[in-house]
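Fig. S4 source data, part A: sequence.
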Amino acid sequence: MFVTRKVINMNFLYDTHAHLDDNMFDSDRNAVIEKIKNSNVGLLNNIASDMESSKASIALAEKYDFVYASVGVHPSCTGAMTNEDILALKELSKHPKVVAIGEIGLDYHYDDTEPETQKQWFRAQLDLAKELDMPVIIHDRESKGECIEILREKGIKKCVFHCFSGSAETAKELLKMGYFISFTGVVTFKNARRAIEAVKEIPLDRLFIETDCPYMAPEPFRGTRNDSSMVFRVAEKIAEIKGVSTDEVIRTTRENAIRFFGIEL
């Protein structure tokens, strides 16, 4: 059984997108999570990428009081999806610590899954989110605007674009749709011009921070295994870009995410 979290210190970070079930953590997962707990990360979403990780995310959320879960199938993993999987996701979503459907969307960077297949199951999972009145976590990579078109088609209102890598113009379009935008350690990279320009255009009250660990480790740890204890680096860089204090970024992004995911403290 999960334990309702009792937060004493409210000045904590919320890593809204992590993959602590990834096999890169198999040798020391418990130790890493203890390190995260001791690094001022008070809330964390473990995000699913397929059916197995949907179940694993829930298991982590049951074990650790500060961890919440999503359920869903990443576009690159939709090749073997069935209608039974949609029914299974619906059942999994009933768990009280499941806070979103995701990560779902479109990814045309690799050719491992046909675009039409991706779009079919993206629409099906959006339909599920609408039926359940749950927010969605979007993965959009090189879809040439098709991901946004489908979100409009389905009338999705509660949505976050994770690991945002688009332009400032695309960010403005998402803001008009009422969406939130989340940044990883990529914003700290020396070649992150587009991400920095986007951050400048996005109001602080529409931002989340995340690690996407074990990937996207921020500078000066780029190329190493990432974990949620490094989410502070993202907050620090966004504060620098926007000319505000790091504490303000931590507080505002945390409050944004708590409201969006419906977390009860």
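Fig. S4 source data, part B ends here. The two ends are 17 Å apart (CA to CA).
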